[in-house]
Amino acid sequence: MTEVSVAKEDVAATGDLVVLKSVNKHFGALHVLQDIDLTIARGEVVVVIGPSGSGKSTLCRTINRLETIDSGSITIDGKPLPHEGKELARLRADVGMVFQSFNLFAHKTVLENVTLGQVKVRKKDKKTAEERARALLDRVGVAAQAEKYPAQLSGGQQQRVAIARALAMEPKVMLFDEPTSALDPEMINEVLEVMQQLARDGMTMIVVTHEMGFARSAANRVVFMADGRIVEQATPDQFFSNPRSDRAKDFLSKIL
Ligand code: ADP
Ligand code: MG
Asked: Are 166 and 96 in contact (CB under 8 A)?
Protein backbone atom coordinates (compact mmCIF):
# COMPACT_ATOMS: atom_id res chain seq x y z
CA MET A 1 0.00 0.00 0.00
CA THR A 2 2.80 2.40 0.85
CA GLU A 3 4.45 1.71 -2.49
CA VAL A 4 1.29 2.56 -4.36
CA SER A 5 0.85 5.92 -2.65
CA VAL A 6 4.52 6.82 -3.23
CA ALA A 7 4.12 6.04 -6.91
CA LYS A 8 1.03 8.24 -7.04
CA GLU A 9 2.90 11.14 -5.50
CA ASP A 10 5.65 10.72 -8.08
CA VAL A 11 3.10 11.10 -10.83
CA ALA A 12 1.66 14.19 -9.16
CA ALA A 13 5.12 15.67 -8.65
CA THR A 14 5.83 15.72 -12.37
CA GLY A 15 2.34 16.43 -13.72
CA ASP A 16 0.17 19.41 -14.50
CA LEU A 17 -0.23 21.88 -11.69
CA VAL A 18 -2.90 24.27 -12.92
CA VAL A 19 -5.62 23.04 -15.26
CA LEU A 20 -8.47 25.16 -16.62
CA LYS A 21 -11.08 23.41 -18.72
CA SER A 22 -13.73 25.24 -20.75
CA VAL A 23 -13.81 28.11 -18.28
CA ASN A 24 -16.47 30.75 -18.91
CA LYS A 25 -17.09 33.94 -16.98
CA HIS A 26 -19.47 36.83 -17.56
CA PHE A 27 -19.72 40.28 -16.06
CA GLY A 28 -23.36 40.97 -16.88
CA ALA A 29 -23.59 40.99 -20.67
CA LEU A 30 -19.80 40.90 -21.09
CA HIS A 31 -18.44 37.42 -21.81
CA VAL A 32 -15.05 38.11 -20.26
CA LEU A 33 -13.60 34.57 -20.35
CA GLN A 34 -14.69 32.38 -23.25
CA ASP A 35 -14.00 28.64 -23.23
CA ILE A 36 -10.56 28.99 -21.69
CA ASP A 37 -8.51 25.79 -21.79
CA LEU A 38 -5.11 26.21 -20.19
CA THR A 39 -2.73 23.73 -18.61
CA ILE A 40 0.38 24.79 -16.71
CA ALA A 41 2.97 22.16 -15.88
CA ARG A 42 4.96 22.15 -12.68
CA GLY A 43 7.96 24.44 -13.05
CA GLU A 44 6.61 26.10 -16.16
CA VAL A 45 6.74 29.87 -16.65
CA VAL A 46 3.86 31.17 -18.74
CA VAL A 47 3.62 34.79 -19.81
CA VAL A 48 0.12 36.04 -20.64
CA ILE A 49 -0.08 39.02 -22.95
CA GLY A 50 -2.83 40.78 -24.84
CA PRO A 51 -4.62 44.07 -25.25
CA SER A 52 -6.14 45.91 -22.30
CA GLY A 53 -9.57 44.51 -21.44
CA SER A 54 -8.88 41.08 -22.96
CA GLY A 55 -9.47 39.28 -19.64
CA LYS A 56 -5.92 38.71 -18.37
CA SER A 57 -6.55 39.99 -14.85
CA THR A 58 -9.85 38.16 -14.63
CA LEU A 59 -8.09 34.97 -15.68
CA CYS A 60 -5.55 35.37 -12.87
CA ARG A 61 -8.25 36.23 -10.37
CA THR A 62 -10.27 33.13 -11.14
CA ILE A 63 -7.24 30.93 -10.47
CA ASN A 64 -7.12 31.93 -6.80
CA ARG A 65 -10.87 32.42 -6.63
CA LEU A 66 -10.93 36.16 -6.23
CA GLU A 67 -13.53 35.72 -8.99
CA THR A 68 -15.95 32.82 -9.39
CA ILE A 69 -16.55 31.19 -12.77
CA ASP A 70 -19.86 30.49 -14.49
CA SER A 71 -18.93 27.16 -16.05
CA GLY A 72 -15.97 24.88 -16.64
CA SER A 73 -13.45 23.73 -14.06
CA ILE A 74 -10.20 24.82 -12.47
CA THR A 75 -7.94 22.46 -10.55
CA ILE A 76 -4.72 23.17 -8.69
CA ASP A 77 -2.54 20.14 -8.15
CA GLY A 78 -5.46 17.89 -9.10
CA LYS A 79 -7.90 19.46 -6.65
CA PRO A 80 -10.87 21.66 -7.53
CA LEU A 81 -10.86 25.16 -6.06
CA PRO A 82 -12.49 25.28 -2.61
CA HIS A 83 -15.42 27.62 -2.04
CA GLU A 84 -14.87 29.11 1.38
CA GLY A 85 -13.35 29.03 4.83
CA LYS A 86 -9.97 27.60 5.79
CA GLU A 87 -9.71 25.65 2.55
CA LEU A 88 -9.96 28.89 0.62
CA ALA A 89 -7.30 30.57 2.77
CA ARG A 90 -5.02 27.61 2.08
CA LEU A 91 -5.69 27.84 -1.65
CA ARG A 92 -4.74 31.53 -1.57
CA ALA A 93 -1.50 30.51 0.14
CA ASP A 94 -0.87 27.79 -2.45
CA VAL A 95 -1.50 30.27 -5.26
CA GLY A 96 0.60 33.32 -4.45
CA MET A 97 -0.52 36.50 -6.14
CA VAL A 98 1.36 39.70 -6.80
CA PHE A 99 -0.66 42.67 -8.05
CA GLN A 100 0.22 45.83 -9.89
CA SER A 101 -0.60 47.85 -6.76
CA PHE A 102 1.59 45.94 -4.21
CA ASN A 103 -1.31 45.56 -1.72
CA LEU A 104 0.85 45.38 1.39
CA PHE A 105 -0.74 45.88 4.82
CA ALA A 106 -0.03 49.59 5.36
CA HIS A 107 -0.16 49.48 9.16
CA LYS A 108 2.18 46.50 9.53
CA THR A 109 5.95 46.56 9.23
CA VAL A 110 7.65 44.84 6.33
CA LEU A 111 8.61 41.95 8.62
CA GLU A 112 5.04 41.64 9.93
CA ASN A 113 3.72 41.66 6.36
CA VAL A 114 5.85 38.64 5.54
CA THR A 115 5.25 36.86 8.86
CA LEU A 116 1.48 37.15 9.40
CA GLY A 117 0.15 34.65 6.89
CA GLN A 118 2.73 32.06 7.85
CA VAL A 119 1.45 32.12 11.44
CA LYS A 120 -2.27 32.43 10.62
CA VAL A 121 -2.62 30.13 7.63
CA ARG A 122 0.46 27.90 7.70
CA LYS A 123 0.43 27.62 11.52
CA LYS A 124 4.12 28.35 11.94
CA ASP A 125 5.36 29.57 15.30
CA LYS A 126 6.36 33.22 15.34
CA LYS A 127 10.10 32.62 15.58
CA THR A 128 10.20 30.19 12.67
CA ALA A 129 8.02 32.53 10.61
CA GLU A 130 10.26 35.51 11.32
CA GLU A 131 13.39 33.59 10.41
CA ARG A 132 11.85 32.57 7.13
CA ALA A 133 10.61 36.13 6.54
CA ARG A 134 14.10 37.58 7.10
CA ALA A 135 15.67 35.02 4.78
CA LEU A 136 13.16 35.86 2.06
CA LEU A 137 13.56 39.61 2.53
CA ASP A 138 17.28 39.04 2.11
CA ARG A 139 16.68 36.99 -1.02
CA VAL A 140 14.70 39.83 -2.64
CA GLY A 141 17.22 42.42 -1.46
CA VAL A 142 15.25 44.34 1.17
CA ALA A 143 16.51 42.80 4.42
CA ALA A 144 17.55 46.25 5.70
CA GLN A 145 13.95 47.48 5.43
CA ALA A 146 12.43 44.83 7.72
CA GLU A 147 11.35 47.16 10.53
CA LYS A 148 9.96 49.90 8.25
CA TYR A 149 6.39 50.46 7.09
CA PRO A 150 5.45 50.03 3.42
CA ALA A 151 4.99 53.77 2.82
CA GLN A 152 8.65 54.31 3.77
CA LEU A 153 9.80 52.09 0.89
CA SER A 154 10.12 52.79 -2.83
CA GLY A 155 7.66 51.13 -5.18
CA GLY A 156 10.26 48.63 -6.32
CA GLN A 157 11.06 47.72 -2.72
CA GLN A 158 7.37 47.36 -1.86
CA GLN A 159 6.81 45.06 -4.80
CA ARG A 160 9.77 42.91 -3.75
CA VAL A 161 8.27 42.70 -0.24
CA ALA A 162 4.97 41.62 -1.83
CA ILE A 163 6.85 38.85 -3.66
CA ALA A 164 8.55 37.78 -0.42
CA ARG A 165 5.20 37.75 1.36
CA ALA A 166 3.69 35.46 -1.26
CA LEU A 167 6.78 33.20 -1.22
CA ALA A 168 6.63 32.96 2.57
CA MET A 169 3.46 30.90 2.18
CA GLU A 170 5.35 28.24 0.19
CA PRO A 171 3.09 28.60 -2.83
CA LYS A 172 2.81 25.93 -5.49
CA VAL A 173 2.34 28.55 -8.16
CA MET A 174 2.85 32.29 -8.33
CA LEU A 175 0.57 34.64 -10.27
CA PHE A 176 1.89 38.05 -11.26
CA ASP A 177 -0.57 40.57 -12.67
CA GLU A 178 1.41 43.37 -14.30
CA PRO A 179 3.79 43.54 -11.34
CA THR A 180 5.91 46.32 -12.83
CA SER A 181 3.25 48.47 -14.47
CA ALA A 182 2.91 50.88 -11.56
CA LEU A 183 6.66 51.30 -11.07
CA ASP A 184 8.94 54.11 -12.10
CA PRO A 185 11.16 52.91 -14.97
CA GLU A 186 14.32 52.73 -12.87
CA MET A 187 12.65 50.25 -10.49
CA ILE A 188 11.32 47.82 -13.06
CA ASN A 189 14.51 45.83 -13.44
CA GLU A 190 15.02 45.18 -9.74
CA VAL A 191 11.61 43.50 -9.65
CA LEU A 192 12.10 41.64 -12.94
CA GLU A 193 15.44 40.32 -11.67
CA VAL A 194 13.76 38.81 -8.62
CA MET A 195 11.20 37.19 -10.91
CA GLN A 196 13.93 35.92 -13.25
CA GLN A 197 15.67 34.30 -10.32
CA LEU A 198 12.44 32.72 -9.16
CA ALA A 199 11.91 31.29 -12.63
CA ARG A 200 15.45 29.88 -12.66
CA ASP A 201 14.80 28.31 -9.25
CA GLY A 202 11.96 26.32 -10.80
CA MET A 203 8.88 28.15 -9.49
CA THR A 204 5.71 27.62 -11.51
CA MET A 205 4.69 31.09 -12.65
CA ILE A 206 1.87 32.77 -14.55
CA VAL A 207 2.91 36.29 -15.42
CA VAL A 208 0.78 38.98 -17.05
CA THR A 209 3.21 41.57 -18.31
CA HIS A 210 4.06 43.98 -21.10
CA GLU A 211 7.77 43.39 -20.46
CA MET A 212 8.64 41.50 -23.61
CA GLY A 213 12.28 41.19 -22.57
CA PHE A 214 11.14 39.18 -19.57
CA ALA A 215 8.85 37.08 -21.76
CA ARG A 216 11.70 36.29 -24.15
CA SER A 217 14.22 35.37 -21.48
CA ALA A 218 12.11 33.72 -18.76
CA ALA A 219 8.99 32.27 -20.36
CA ASN A 220 8.61 28.71 -21.54
CA ARG A 221 5.40 29.72 -23.26
CA VAL A 222 3.54 32.83 -24.30
CA VAL A 223 -0.25 32.84 -24.13
CA PHE A 224 -1.86 35.58 -26.20
CA MET A 225 -5.39 36.67 -25.21
CA ALA A 226 -7.86 38.88 -27.01
CA ASP A 227 -11.56 39.49 -26.32
CA GLY A 228 -11.73 36.88 -23.56
CA ARG A 229 -10.20 34.08 -25.61
CA ILE A 230 -6.81 32.45 -25.83
CA VAL A 231 -6.04 33.24 -29.46
CA GLU A 232 -2.59 31.73 -29.69
CA GLN A 233 0.05 29.94 -27.60
CA ALA A 234 3.66 29.40 -28.56
CA THR A 235 7.24 29.51 -27.35
CA PRO A 236 8.50 33.10 -27.02
CA ASP A 237 10.76 32.56 -30.06
CA GLN A 238 7.92 31.35 -32.21
CA PHE A 239 5.48 33.92 -30.95
CA PHE A 240 7.66 36.99 -31.37
CA SER A 241 9.27 36.01 -34.66
CA ASN A 242 6.26 34.40 -36.30
CA PRO A 243 2.90 35.21 -34.71
CA ARG A 244 0.18 33.30 -36.53
CA SER A 245 -2.99 35.27 -35.85
CA ASP A 246 -3.79 38.72 -37.20
CA ARG A 247 -4.71 39.82 -33.68
CA ALA A 248 -1.27 38.92 -32.38
CA LYS A 249 0.48 40.52 -35.36
CA ASP A 250 -1.50 43.70 -34.82
CA PHE A 251 -0.78 43.68 -31.07
CA LEU A 252 2.95 43.12 -31.55
CA SER A 253 3.20 45.82 -34.21
CA LYS A 254 1.90 48.28 -31.62
CA ILE A 255 4.11 47.34 -28.70
CA LEU A 256 7.45 46.30 -30.24
P1 ADP B 1 -7.14 42.89 -18.74
O2 ADP B 1 -6.49 42.52 -17.46
O3 ADP B 1 -6.73 42.03 -19.89
O4 ADP B 1 -6.96 44.35 -19.08
P5 ADP B 1 -9.60 42.48 -17.27
O6 ADP B 1 -9.66 41.05 -16.94
O7 ADP B 1 -9.20 43.43 -16.22
O8 ADP B 1 -8.71 42.66 -18.59
O9 ADP B 1 -11.01 42.97 -17.80
C10 ADP B 1 -11.68 42.34 -18.89
C11 ADP B 1 -13.00 43.04 -19.11
O12 ADP B 1 -13.85 42.81 -17.99
C13 ADP B 1 -12.90 44.55 -19.25
O14 ADP B 1 -13.84 44.96 -20.22
C15 ADP B 1 -13.27 45.05 -17.88
O16 ADP B 1 -13.84 46.33 -17.96
C17 ADP B 1 -14.28 44.03 -17.43
N18 ADP B 1 -14.30 43.84 -15.97
C19 ADP B 1 -13.26 43.48 -15.19
N20 ADP B 1 -13.63 43.35 -13.91
C21 ADP B 1 -14.96 43.64 -13.88
C22 ADP B 1 -15.94 43.67 -12.82
N23 ADP B 1 -15.63 43.37 -11.57
N24 ADP B 1 -17.20 44.01 -13.18
C25 ADP B 1 -17.53 44.31 -14.45
N26 ADP B 1 -16.67 44.27 -15.48
C27 ADP B 1 -15.40 43.95 -15.20
MG1 MG C 1 -5.31 43.61 -16.14
From this structure: yes
Q: How far is the CA of 177 from the centre of ligand 2 (A)?
A: 7
56 close to ligand 1 (CB < 6 Angstrom): yes
Residue-wise pLDDT tens digits, 16-32:
999 999 999 999 999 99
Atom 6 (ligand 1) nearest CA: 55
To test the pocket of ligand 1, the residue of 23, 26, 32, 47 to mutate (highest count of ligand atoms within 8 Å of its CB) is: 32
62 Cβ inside 6 Å of ligand 1: no
Q: Which ligand is nearest to the CA of 99?
A: 2
CB 159 within 8 A of CB 102: yes
Statement: the pTM of the whole predicted model exceeds 0.90: yes
Instruction: State the Cα torsion 109-166-181-102 to the nearest 10°.
Output: -30
Between β-strands 204-208 and 221-226, what pairing exists: parallel, antiparallel or unpaired? unpaired
What is the ipTM for the molecules in this complex? 0.98
Say if residue 114's pLDDT is above 50.
yes
pLDDT digits (tens, 9 = 90+) for 181-200: 999 999 999 999 999 999 99
Confidence of residue 8 (pLDDT cuts 50, 70, 90): very low
